[in-house]
Amino acid sequence: MKLFGQRRKGMTIVVSLVIFSLVMAACGSANTGGAPSSSGGAPAPVNGKGCTKVGVLLPETATSARWDSEDRPDLQKFIPQVLSGATVDYNNAQGSADTQQTQAQADLTKGDCILVIAPSDSIKAAAIVAAAKAKNVPVIAYDRLIYSNDLNYYVSFDGVAVGTLQGKWIADHYQSYVSSNGTKNTVMIDGSQTDNNALLFAKGAHNELDPLFSSGALKKVYEKFTPNWDNPTAQTEMQAALTANQNKIAVAYVANDGMANNVIAALKAIKLNGKVLVTGQDATVAGIHNILAGDQSMTVYKAIAKEAMATAQLVAALSQGTSTSSLTNGVTTMNPQGGGAIPSILETPVAVDKTNINSTVIADGFVSKSDVCQGIPAGTDGVC
Q1: pLDDT (tens digit, 9 = 90+) per residue, 347-359?
Q2: How many other C-beta atoms can be found within 10 angstroms of the C-beta atom of residue 22?
């Protein structure tokens, strides 16, 4: 009986220890700080550390060819190249901020632990950043700033510098157009007001052009922001400016190549193409072709591969838990609506006109000679 009592006592101790262990395990699980399980197994990455599932969300394809033809393949190539084992979930919002928010939520739900977002709307995308922060998922704003102090990083080109290059080209070349057209009238067709880049481009352009407006060297007769960078809307805007000024226009500042192509269509309709100074941006095939055809004066080349590679390097640093200071080099961008300083990587844009097409966009393989020279006479500008 004594031996049986000792065994009962021993069994009671063992059972008590098991119960205690289960209770402690439950308590430990309840106090992990909210790190969710990715799929019932290991805890999900926190603040990107250990992350290999990256969500890439781009804004549209209708107004600029770059997003699907350049940014998408570069990001899909470079992120796994720099971060071994990484996978990329790609979505395009097709111009809808609401669609982009739905796509982002889907990425978060399925466990994407770093988001790279070129916002369809800089203001509305702040809700995506808030949702990501709640799940300890860092967000990198790609090309376009998101107005959120919780944004982790911003990778783009210097937007003010882009507009400055456009404005400076006008300042350096407007006189011959004013002389031949017999007018100083200048039109400004800006990008989408919901895209922070459009505001930066316009600021840079105005830095160069406002002194000319003030002195009377040029006369601004029309300026509009173009919702969603819509190309047909830009054409309508140019037609309105031409009508209001009896077709007397010398200069058309146009924020990108897509809109410039439609502005040129409006000029062609009244046989003014090639006679009006027209700017652009993005160095698209159509933009470079229009320059060679003599209908567009310049564009701005942004080496998208550099932007995508810098983004991939940030993703890798977040995943590996290493410092990003050597990537951002202390550069920050202010959130216009909250004052927060966002660590940034800002690449340098380059002005392109007929004098340097060969040495820039063709030399880099950004566009091909065969594409931009279609329908252009052989020997044109030493390119075709």
Answers
A1: 999 999 999 999 9
A2: 10
